Target: FrrB
Amino acid sequence: MKTMKKSVLLISVGLLFAVATAHAQDKVETTLSADVVNHYIWRGTDCGNVSIQPTLGVAYKGLSLSAWGSVGLDKDDNKELDLTASYSVGGFSIGVTDYWFNTPEKRYFYYNAHGTSHIFEGYVSYDFGPVSAAWYTNFAGNDGVNKDGDRAYSSYFEVNAPFKLGGVDWTATAGAVPFATTTYNTSGFAVTNLALKASKDIQITDHFTLPIFGQVVANPSDQKAYFVFGFTLQP
Model:
């Protein structure tokens, strides 16, 4: 618990310092949308079948707060609610996410260290232009364990490279888990996410476009591959 409090304090101080010293947009921006996907794949891991994934967020002067959820049409799929606070300036971003799943503990407001369904993750990222890189680490909650049975502080590192081809927006992704953890089912360093995603806006009427996307995902560590297709609904 002391480790969790120290981590939250350090990240909070970092966010407050960034807010006090940086300049960004001067008006509140709101995000409201929902993705519908045929398969929920997260960092190369199979998390469910056909799912609806809404997003609600606000941003002001680089500081953003957002809520993201996922509900599968299959009754056996997990339900998920993620809350994120982040700050961005230039190409640099820092943030904290509270992930919640309806298993093993179905109560949301239950934070017992040995039974909660919450996972708390901190991240830092930087957009270099041609590529962006991000590092994520779980620092509290229902994290996995390492080979010794201790908290793994499960981490994940990802590089993304966006480009345009044939009038379509593409993104190539390479992600890896650096250490052994039961969270990602790895016994050491493992490449868990190689993906290629294409996105395009389809003009339906003069006032309505439908963003669609397709993504091929491979997880070399698990020897599995997936194809994800979806579309986004937004005002």
Summary: The chain has a mean pLDDT of 91. Residues 131 and 161 are 4 Å apart (CA to CA). The helical segments are 2-21. The longest helix spans residues 2-21.
